[in-house]
Prior knowledge:
The protein has helices at about 10-25, 30-45, 55-70, 80-90. The chain is mostly helical.
Amino acid sequence: MTATTVTIRLDNSDKEQAAEIAGYFGFDLSTVTRAFYKQMIRERRIPLDLSMPEPNEESLQAMREADDFFASGKPARFKTAADMIASLEE
Length: 90
């Protein structure tokens, strides 16, 4: 396999934002670009939808409740995760 180099021009801010998103999924921009080309060839279309998952309303509410709890300074009900899990088994 002979390798080639592809050069693209884009705004630095766009590159930084894209690199941040790629990093979220554990990739660098070169890997994402190669994956894009491979999938495009395999599917014979322009594919690849890697989007950050948006929490649903139930998850958002749980996060707000956790934030409120931590901000309150109240002591936790359990000292360890094992204690918490044991309480569920009772």
